[in-house]
């Protein structure tokens, strides 16, 4: 028996899935069709989720998007110390390359930006706290999935339409698995025009003490500003990701050693 809570989670998931897909912010009718419910039910549920700040109307008032309450829950569920530890490393990347840098975590089939440092020279859609982007066509998204097998990718992205993204984005799970397999050995994803036109995302996974990927550290560089520096930029991102792993491990050790009160 499906509970109201389960239906609410399904609705929230549907809003997020549509938001990061090709159709953009979904309306009541679209959500009702997706979940097999009538629009009156959807309207009541959206009102309840909106009261909690989990969803909100988009800027034009034509559809729904996830709200600030969603991001607060995501932050609370994750390692709240990781964004703080990443901040100086992101600033270092921006200072060195004059391009925006950010930290992402995975939220189902989306990459959620939890910390970002802007650049005066350029901007990136993903390099803003709270930004939600697809995992399959972004550098941080692919870095977060770098350890996923083809089967795990198929399960995670079941029902996802590979529409949108940049001109060189993957268009199915097989292509995504092959591209990730190629990047896995290097430990860094170089996503050339996969999300934004003429922009390259350099993204490295951040692992916890067990070796599991928990976040991705990224920098976005317009292609015309690369100037043959791709390998150097990629290496700097890998080094920053490794430094963040050390910082996080050290912080975890200090926390574990702290006496109980």
TrEMBL record:
Coiled-coil ranges (or none): none
Protein name (Swiss-Prot/TrEMBL): IclR family transcriptional regulator C-terminal domain-containing protein
InterPro entries to which the protein is assigned, alphabetical: GAF-like_dom_sf (IPR029016), HTH_MetabolicPath_Reg (IPR050707), Tscrpt_reg_IclR_C (IPR014757), Tscrpt_reg_IclR_N (IPR005471), WH-like_DNA-bd_sf (IPR036388), WH_DNA-bd_sf (IPR036390)
Organism name: Kitasatospora putterlickiae
Record domain IclR-ED: where: 69-254
Keyword match Flavoprotein: no
Top-rank taxon, per record: Bacteria
Keyword Nucleotidyltransferase listed: no
Residues of the HTH iclR-type domain: 2-68
Entry keywords, A to Z: DNA-binding, Transcription, Transcription regulation
Gene3D superfamilies: 3.30.450.40, Winged helix-like DNA-binding domain superfamily/Winged helix DNA-binding domain
């Amino acid at each position: 028996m499906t509970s109201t809570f389960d239906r609410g989670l399904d609705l929230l998931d549907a809003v997020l899935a549509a938001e990061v897909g090709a159709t953009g912010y979904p309306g009541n009718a679209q959500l009702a069709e997706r979940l097999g419910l009538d629009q009156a039910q959807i309207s009541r549920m959206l009102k309840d989720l909106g009261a909690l700040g989990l969803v909100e109307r988009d800027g034009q008032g034509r559809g729904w998007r996830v709200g600030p309450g969603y991001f607060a829950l995501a932050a609370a569920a994750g390692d709240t110390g990781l964004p703080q530890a990443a901040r100086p490393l992101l600033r270092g990347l921006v200072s060195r390359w004059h391009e925006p840098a950010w930290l992402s975590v995975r939220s189902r089939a989306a990459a959620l930006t939890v910390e970002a440092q802007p650049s005066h020279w350029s901007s990136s859609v993903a390099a803003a706290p709270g930004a939600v982007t697809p995992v399959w066509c972004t550098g941080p998204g692919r870095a977060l999935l770098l350890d996923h097998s083809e089967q795990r990718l198929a399960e995670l992205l079941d029902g996802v339409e590979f529409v949108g993204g940049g001109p060189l984005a993957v268009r199915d799970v097989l292509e995504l698995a092959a591209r990730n397999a190629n990047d896995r050995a290097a430990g860094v994803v170089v996503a050339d025009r996969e999300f934004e036109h003429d922009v390259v995302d350099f993204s490295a996974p951040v692992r916890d003490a067990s070796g599991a990927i928990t976040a991705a550290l990224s920098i976005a560089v317009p292609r015309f500003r690369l100037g043959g520096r791709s390998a150097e930029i990629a290496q700097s991102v890998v080094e920053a990701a490794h430094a963040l792993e050390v910082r996080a491990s050290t912080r975890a050790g200090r926390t574990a050693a702290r006496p109980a009160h």
